[in-house]
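About this split. The held-out portion is used to measure sequence recovery: a designer receives only the structure tokens and must propose an amino acid at every position. Recovery is the fraction of positions where the proposal matches the reference. Here is one held-out target exactly as it appears in the evaluation file.
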């Protein structure tokens, strides 16, 4: 196979033939070199961590440019910090995960032994979104490297400054036959998804996830789909409304609401809605005292999504919703993409805002009479990526945990489960397929190979012909 040029000479990979050649080059290198050792994997993880830390200010600037305005602290905490923490977690646990697992052996096969060996799959395709373009690109990449794989990464074209920085950073620290960044538009993304990878990990919307899975199926490529959907926040009757409102507001408004696990709507006891609204407004004012000019409040990514969110509000208003905007836009910001926090009351299923994932700072509030009604409301819809419950330990909490199914659950807070490195993260049903983070991530991007070892002398010889009395004894032992 023709050798690829050095990193600094590698042309952009933006054609079908170029994509195929890059994948072939990585697969050939994987087969040539074999699985990397523990030391090599740890070295790669540390290189990635150090490169992120060295470019922290560059990433802050790039994300601010891509969003028009992106909170510096949110970038450091939610994009960069979460990735660095995950890398440290992978580094610390890798030795244990790489060990072969002993498994039990039936007595009739004594003294044979069983074990499971986790080996790299090969080349992983990673398709990452725009909302957290560092974390949702590099966390899967770090997991793939920890599992001993090579990777091709397709970041979003909607964050060009950040995607360009990712490409240059990864080209500086990895050879192209180990990690490659593919840039381009949706056409390139479609071609990327159709490649015969050993696994594809996609994070994004449900419609694009369907397309990725459809393309991958042509080559029988297994997929992990991290999607989204409408994650509910259930406030149990009598729960402290100020606490619930504060934590729902944080989860809803972080990154301008552009978070796949953001609470999409709130289920609140009917008689407590007015108090919840008042508490929510107060808590937003505490989080963002001058929201129209607050440096901590992130803008919407582009004009298309700003118009989409505005259309959701106007559609709801036209169909009878009560719209409550919190704060005011300062004069002279008519061209900015600052979208004010918005509450919607009197919502119905006919409104567009109740059909699709919102992905912005709009919170519909749905009343319920009994907690069983709230559970039924959630269960009548596709299973969410996350569910948030606010209430004490008791029968209400147990009802929600036992009778609903979601990717993850957070009790008395929102979105923080994503930062728990030892928990699996993933959806169920329409909100996703498969999981990563924690040991589940390592196993997702590994092949669990069962190995049975037979010694020279073993009981199993008695189950082969010619059959005799020893076989009859073994058969009796097995069947009784």
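Reference sequence for scoring:
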């Amino acid at each position: 196979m023709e050798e690829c040029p050095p990193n600094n000479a590698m042309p952009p990979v933006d054609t079908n033939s170029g994509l195929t050649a890059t994948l072939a080059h990585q697969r050939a290198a994987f087969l040539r070199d074999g699985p990397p050792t523990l030391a090599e994997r740890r070295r790669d993880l540390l290189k990635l961590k150090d490169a992120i830390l060295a470019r922290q200010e560059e990433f802050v600037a790039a994300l601010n440019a891509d969003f028009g305005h992106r909170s510096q602290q949110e970038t450091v905490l939610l994009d960069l910090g979460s990735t660095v923490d995950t890398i440290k977690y992978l580094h610390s646990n890798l030795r244990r995960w790489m060990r072969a697992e002993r498994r039990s052996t039936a007595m009739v096969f004594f003294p044979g032994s069983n074990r499971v060996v986790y080996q790299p799959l090969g080349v992983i395709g990673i398709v990452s979104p725009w909302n957290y373009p560092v974390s949702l690109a590099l966390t899967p990449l770090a997991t793939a490297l920890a599992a001993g794989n090579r990777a091709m990464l397709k970041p979003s074209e909607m964050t060009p400054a950040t995607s360009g920085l990712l490409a240059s950073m990864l080209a500086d620290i990895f050879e192209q036959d180990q990690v490659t960044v593919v840039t381009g538009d949706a056409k390139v993304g479609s071609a990327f998804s159709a490649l015969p990878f050993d696994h594809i990990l996609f994070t994004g919307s449900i419609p694009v996830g369907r397309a990725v899975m459809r393309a991958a199926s042509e080559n029988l490529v297994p997929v992990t789909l991290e999607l989204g959907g409408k994650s509910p926040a259930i406030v149990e009757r009598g729960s402290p409304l100020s606490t619930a409102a504060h934590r729902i507001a944080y989860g809803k408004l972080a990154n301008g609401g552009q978070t796949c696990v953001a609470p999409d709507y709130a289920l609140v006891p009917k008689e407590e809605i007015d108090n919840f609204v008042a508490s929510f407004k107060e808590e937003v004012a505490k989080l963002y005292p001058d929201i129209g000019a607050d440096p901590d409040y992130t803008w919407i990514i582009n004009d298309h999504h700003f118009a989409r969110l505005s259309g959701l509000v106007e559609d709801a208003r036209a169909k009878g919703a009560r719209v409550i905007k919190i704060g005011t836009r300062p004069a002279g910001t008519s061209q900015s993409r600052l979208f004010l926090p918005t509450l919607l009351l009197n919502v119905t299923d006919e409104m567009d805002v109740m059909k699709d994932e919102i992905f912005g700072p709009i919170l519909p509030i749905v009343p319920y009479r009994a907690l069983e009604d709230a559970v039924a409301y959630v269960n009548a819809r596709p299973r969410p990526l996350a569910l948030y419950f606010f209430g004490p330990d008791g029968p209400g909490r147990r009802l929600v945990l036992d009778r609903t199914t979601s990717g993850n659950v957070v009790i008395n807070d929102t979105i923080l489960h994503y930062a728990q490195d030892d928990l699996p993260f993933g959806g169920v049903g329409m909100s996703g397929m498969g999981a990563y983070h924690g040991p589940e991530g390592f196993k997702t991007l590994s092949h669990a190979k069962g190995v049975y070892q037979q010694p020279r002398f073993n009981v199993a010889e008695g189950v082969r012909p010619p059959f005799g009395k020893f076989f009859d004894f073994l058969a009796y032992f097995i069947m009784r």
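Annotator remark: Confidence is low (pLDDT under 50) at residues 1-14.
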